[in-house]
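Hello, quick one for you while I still have it in my head. A protein chain has come my way and I'm curious about its shape. Can you walk me through what the tokens say about the fold? No rush at all, and the record is pasted right below.
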Amino acid sequence: MVTIIAAIAENNALGKNNQLIWHLPADLKRFKKTTLNHVVIMGRKTFESLGKPLPNRTNIIITRDKNYKAESCIVVNSLTEALKVAAKEDENPFILGGAEIYKQAIPFTDRLDLTFVYHKFEADVFFPEIDRKIWKETSRENFKADDKNKYDYSFVTFERIEINLI
């Protein structure tokens, strides 16, 4: 089971200038709880925006740079290679982004674990459109903005719909 985990705005915005464009502590807490003790797969830019490996997770970084090194991380040169390495260690690895990695990973993904942030943001990277013919919403928790979380948001899970071609 491969899961994409992401927080996306109303306009599918993910970030700007290699940074998140909002701060939702509830989302960060959920992200940590969900991915702890799992393999996490991310692109080089996403890794560099974090500044260090995520603790208590196996961090796999995808980059075209054959000489790239990151302490305490596994560096690979393709999504396919990342998924092969992850499969040896974890039955449920998580894809953390960025935008290009999400786009490449969608065909190989079984679940989308998303936080929808109900606001439109100026951004330079966006999450791919969710095709409702392929994805079925299976759970949703809605939350209102509060003193710690500036925007209304929802935690939403989608599962890939099995398509029987016969």
